[in-house]
Amino acid sequence: MSDNDNEIVTTENLPMLALRGLSVFPNMLLNFDVERAMSVAALNVAAEGERRIFLLAQKDISKESPAEADLYKVGTICYVKQLLRIPGGGIKVLVEGHQRAALKKVLSDRKFFFAEVEPILEEVPEKITPRTEALIRKSVSLFDSYSSLTGNVTKEAVIAIYSSTEPGYIADYIAQNMYMKPEKKQLILETVSPTKRLELICDMLLREIEVVEIEQQIDERLRGRLERQQRDHVLREQLRVIQSELGESSDVGSETDDYRSKILALKLDGEIEKKLLREVDRLERQQFGSSESAVIRNYLDICIELPWKTLSKERLDVKAARRILDEDHFGLMKVKDRIIDFLSVKQLTHQHNGTILCLVGPPGVGKTSVAISIAKALNRKLARLALGGIHDEAEIRGHRKTYVGAMPGRIISAISQAGTRNPLLLLDEIDKLGSDYRGDPSSALLEALDPEQNATFRDHYLELPFDLSDVMFITTANTTSTIPRPLLDRMEVIELSSYTDMEKLEIAKSHLIPKQRKKHGLNLRQFKITDDAVLEIIAGYTRESGVRLLEREVAAACRKTASKIVAGDIKSVIIKTGMLEEFLGVRKYKPETIAGKDEIGLVKGLAWTSMGGETLDVEVNVLDGSGKLELTGNLGDVMKESAHAAVSYIRSRAVKLGIDPDFYKNRDIHIHFPEGAVPKDGPSAGITIAIAVISALTGAPVRRDLAMTGEITLRGRILAIGGLKEKTMAALRTGVKTVIIPAENEPDLEDIDQTVRRALNFVTAAHVDNVLDVALDFTSVKLPVKPDDGVLPIIGDGDRADAGPSIRQ
C-alpha cells in the first residue's frame, strides 16, 4: 500500500498563467519573461499571496488572448521564487515546479485567469525493478550522448541525474533540459506513470540523436563545399598570376581588360576616367560569383553606355523648321515664333543659350505634340519624362548604387535611351509633381534645369558629373500656380491659350479627320464631313479649350461609318448638320443664349476654367430685413471677399446712386451664383457682383447682351484680370454683344482672335462709375444726383476716377 493512497485529494483555487511553447515539470527551476497584461496580473496576484501559481501551456502559441478551450488540461503548480520587473511593463520570473495538476474550471478570465485545479498524485513504486533500473541507465546514457552531440547541455546537468534513482524525477529532468516540440513535452507532463515517462523519453532521445547526427552530416558537406570554393578561388588567383607572367590571359582578365579598353576609348575627362578604372580594379579583386562583382558590372555597363561624347547633328535651317511646325500645327504663332527665335540665335552664335521653355495651357491644346514637332524641326532625339505623381527625389536623381535594385534617375536614363548628349528632353506635367518624406522632386530638378549648374549634374547612382548643358529642356503644365517659384524662375513660360471654333475647324480638317479616317481604314470617298457638321460637333458635343474631345467625337463617327459599311447598309457617308445624332447620339450641350429681356439684379460675368472660358450669371435679391448679406453658390474665400468689398463700395456711394443710405440696416442682400454644385473662386467677379447689387438696390435693369469681368477695390477701382482670350470666346458663344474689361487689360486685346474682336464691342473701364451708364438702364429710375459729364466725383480720400468708358470695335 502506498502512502499516497491515504492522502485526500482536494481542489485548489489559484491564479493561472498560460505559457506559449513552454512546460514546467515538478521539482524543476525555470525562468522566463512575461509580457502579456493577463500574465503580469496573474503573477502580481500570486506574489502578493502565497506565491503559488498554476502554469499551463496553450495549444496555439500564436493566440494573444487564449480562451479556456485553447488550453491543455494538465499543468504544474509552481512556487514563484523571484520576480524582476523589466522596462516596458514586463517581468522576468523564476519559478520552481511543485506538483502536476489538472484544470477543472476557469473561475475568471477578465483581468487574469483564476482557476480551480486538482493536484495529480504521482505513483511512487515500492522498489526499483530490473526493468526500471534498465530504463534509468538507458535514459541517462542517451542523454549523455545527446549532450555531447549538441553541446547545448552542460556536463554538470548530466552528472546531476547520475546519482538519482527516482524514475519520475529523471524523466522530468531530461524532458526539461532537452529540445523537443511543445506537444511532446505536454505528453510527458500528462503521463503520470514514471516508468511510462522513461519509455517515452528513451524513444524521443533516440530520434533526436538520429536527427542531430543527420544535421551534422549536412553541415560537414556544406563546410566542405565552401572550403572547395575558397580553394578554387585561391587556385584561380594563382592561375591568373601565372598566366600574367606568361603573357596569357584568363576569362576574368579578358573581361576587365575589355572594360578598360572601352573606358579608354571613350576619352573621358580625367576624374571620370580615373573613377571608372578604379571600379574595374575593384571588379578584378572580387571573388568569383560574389554579389559585389554583379553590382560593379552593372554600374560599369550603365556608365559605358552613356553618350558622354555623342552629339546628334542639329538642323539649324530656320525655313525648314518653320515649314515643319506649320505642317504639324495650326495657329500657335507665339510658340512657333519663339522656336524660330531660338534657332536664329543658335545659328548666329553656335552656342546653346540654356533657355528652358515651359508650355502652359489647358488640356488638349497640343503642348506635348508641339514639343515633339520641335524635336523633329531641330533634328534632335526626343526623350519624354512623365512627371505626374512623382514624389520621390530618387526618381529624378537616382539611388545610391549600394542599395539593392539601385538604378540611375529618370534624366540620366532618358539620355541613355536617346543615345545622344543633346536630346530634347520633354518633362511632361511638371505642375503635378508631389513631395513627401522621401524628398522633393521639384528641388532635385533645380540643378538639372539651371543653365549655370547643369554642366556638372551629378546623379546619385553615377556619382560622376554629367554635362546637361547641351540638352534642350521643354516642360509642360496646365497651370503655373502649382509649380514651385524657384523652379518656375528657371523657365520661360509660353502660354498656349484655347482655340477658337474656327481654329478647331481648321485643325479638324487638316489633321484630325485625315488621321482618324486612316486609323479606321476609311478613304476620302467613304467618309466625308461638312464644315457645318464639324462646327455643330464643336458647339454641341464638346466643351473644351483644346481638340482632344473633338478628335474623340470624330473617331466615334468614323467607327459608326465603318460599322455601317461592313454591315452592307451603305457604301459611303457624307455627314451633314442634322445627321449627327445618328452617329454621335443626343447633343450633349445646349446652345447658350442670352435672356429674353433686361432684368434687375441679373448680370452675366465671365470666368476662366482649366477647360476654357465660361459665362457665369450672378443673381441678387434685396429683401426687407436687418442688413444681412447672404452668399450662396459654393463660393471660395476670394469671391466672398469680393462680395463684401462690393457692398462696402456701394455704401460709400449710396447717395450718388440714389440708394437709401441705411440699406445695410433695413435690407437683406442675397447674392447667388447658379450651379451650386460647381466650386467657384477667383477675384475677377468683383465688378459683376457690384453691378448686380447696384441694379437690385436701384431697380435699374441690366443690359441682357452685356458681360463683364474685373476685380474691384473698396474705392471702386477695377484691376486687371487673366484669361481674357478664353473669357471673350465664351462671351461670343453666348451671344453677348458688349464686354466690359479692366482698362489695364487693354493691351491684351492685341492677342484676341480677329473673329472675336470683330464680333464684340469692348468697353475698357478703370472705375465702377465708368460702367454704370453702359451696364444699367436708368431711364426708368431717377437718380437724385448724377455725375457731371466727363468729370467723375471724388472717391474716398481724394482719388479721382478716370474719364468715361472707351468702346473698341
From TrEMBL:
Reactions catalysed according to its record: Hydrolysis of proteins in presence of ATP
Chief place where the protein resides: cytoplasm
* Group of enzyme by EC: hydrolase
Q: Describe how expression is induced or repressed.
A: By heat shock.
Against InterPro entries, the record matches this protein to:
AAA+_ATPase (IPR003593), ATPase_AAA_core (IPR003959), Lon_bac (IPR027543), Lon_bac/euk-typ (IPR004815), Lon_lid (IPR054594), Lon_proteolytic (IPR008269), Lon_Prtase (IPR027065), Lon_prtase_N (IPR003111)
Is Cell cycle a UniProt keyword of this protein? no
User: Which ranges carry the Lon N-terminal domain?
Assistant: 14-209
- Per the record, what is one GO cellular component? cytoplasm
Q: Assembly and partners?
A: Homohexamer. Organized in a ring with a central cavity.
Q: What does this protein do?
A: ATP-dependent serine protease that mediates the selective degradation of mutant and abnormal proteins as well as certain short-lived regulatory proteins. Required for cellular homeostasis and for survival from DNA damage and developmental changes induced by stress. Degrades polypeptides processively to yield small peptide fragments that are 5 to 10 amino acids long. Binds to DNA in a double-stranded, site-specific manner.
This one is known as: Lon protease
What is the organism of origin for this protein? Answer: Sporobacter termitidis DSM 10068
